[in-house]
Amino acid sequence: MFIVDEKDSEYRFGDNGPKYLMKGPRMNFAIVQFTPGKDFPAHYHNVMEENFYILEGTAEITVDGKVYNLTPGQMIHIEPKEVHYVRNTSDKVMRMVSTLAPYQEVDKVDVE
């Protein structure tokens, strides 16, 4: 058992990107934030499935070429090998929870 406080972690890119509260041993748990216009490059995972739950703002998430606009309270489940791309197309900050499981130290494959 352990407790983590979000304020003790930092976003990967200053004020954007994932902020991991837990990495392994069985799953990853992160808060993801994008300011207006920011995105995260298209990629997929070989083994891990990923879930995004929108906390605030609007997330435009493209999965295998299909675009979804998610709002607070909505969740999207992404299976392994599904190419996904996330961006904030609004004029407000977007925050969401991201979970990845089963944990793999290296499993992200970038796509152009």
Automatic annotation (TrEMBL):
Protein name: Cupin domain-containing protein
Transmembrane segment boundaries: none
Species, as recorded: Hydrogenoanaerobacterium saccharovorans
Annotated Cupin type-2 domain residues: 31-98
Gene3D superfamilies: Jelly Rolls
Pfam families: Cupin_2
